[in-house]
Amino acid sequence: MARLTKKQKEAVAKIDKSKFYSLSEASALIKEISNAKFDASVDIAIRLGVDPKKANQMVRGVVSLPHGTGKDIKVLALVTPDKEQEAKDAGADFVGLNEYLDKIKGGWTDVDVIITMPSVMGKLGPLGRVLGPRGLMPNPKTGTVTMEVGKAVSDVKKGKIDFKVDKFGIIHAAIGKASFDLAKLIDNANELLTTIVKLKPAASKGTYMESVFMSSTMSPSVRIDEKSI
């Protein structure tokens, strides 16, 4: 078992493991104990009372964080020539089609989000083995397959994220940076959590939101009282 550093021990000592914190308390505490030498990402992990193996209990969606993620999201727009300028004007980092399809075939995936058009999706099918495991395959449900390419690029750049419950019934999402003002962290976290609450499947019985934890890169986690959400 790895030994904790002095700063890590101090951080752990500030957390009352027997306490469920309110969203505002947890956000303030995470800011206080985040002592990485870089601007740490603040993340939330939500365990849901669903069975992801059942299609009628799958939880996935998109949310626009009011204050963005604090991360410079690299966007690839795989579009036909008539949509290239629209994608560039909206801020896409990479714009094109065949040349980028060839790069992806060669293993290149140095982007965070891929946005494309319905007519191009057929060309992406063979690349599923490369894009799927990395969570990069565009999907109409998340707004990344659309004719409104400019809007899609702009939304992602401003802080629109997609989330999906994993095979363990947990949703992981970044909601900002430790350097964010407390109010901005709370706003972002609240926007994500309330969106997930609204997506409760009708087939889900019993407790829906079983546990919520907030943490930052390299920090211990803080449990949030799900009843306060």
Please tell me about this protein's structure.
The structure is a single chain. This protein has 229 residues and is α/β, with parallel strands linked by helices. It folds into 2 domains: 17-68 and 161-228, Ribulose 1,5 Bisphosphate Carboxylase/Oxygenase (2-Layer Sandwich), CATH 3.30.190; 75-157, Ribosomal protein L1/L10, domain II (Rossmann fold, 3-Layer(aba) Sandwich), CATH 3.40.50.790. Helix content is 31%, strand content 21%. The protein has 8 helices and 9 strands. The protein has a 4-stranded antiparallel β-sheet with strand order 7-1-8-9. Strands 4-3-5 form a 3-stranded parallel β-sheet, with helices on both faces. α2 (23-33) crosses α8 (182-198).
Number of β-strand runs? 9
Helix content: 25-40%
Q: Shape from CA axes?
A: globular
Mean pLDDT: 91
Please name the fourth-level CATH homologous superfamily of the largest domain: Ribosomal protein L1/L10, rRNA-binding domain
What is the correct CATH architecture of the largest domain? 2-Layer Sandwich
> What's the oligomerization state?
single chain
Counting helices, strands and paired strands, the structural category is: alpha/beta
Q: Number of helical runs?
A: 8
Strand content: 15-25%
> How many domains make up the 3D coordinates?
2
Q: Give helix and strand order, one letter per element, not per position.
A: HHEEEHEHEHHHEEHEE
What profile does the largest beta sheet have? 4 strands, antiparallel
**Order of strands side by side in the largest beta sheet?**
7-1-8-9
CATH topology of the largest domain: Ribulose 1,5 Bisphosphate Carboxylase/Oxygenase
In terms of per-residue confidence, which ranges show pLDDT below 50 for 5 or more consecutive residues? Answer: none
The separation of the N and C termini measures: 35 Å
Radius of gyration: 19 Å
CATH class call of the largest domain: Alpha Beta
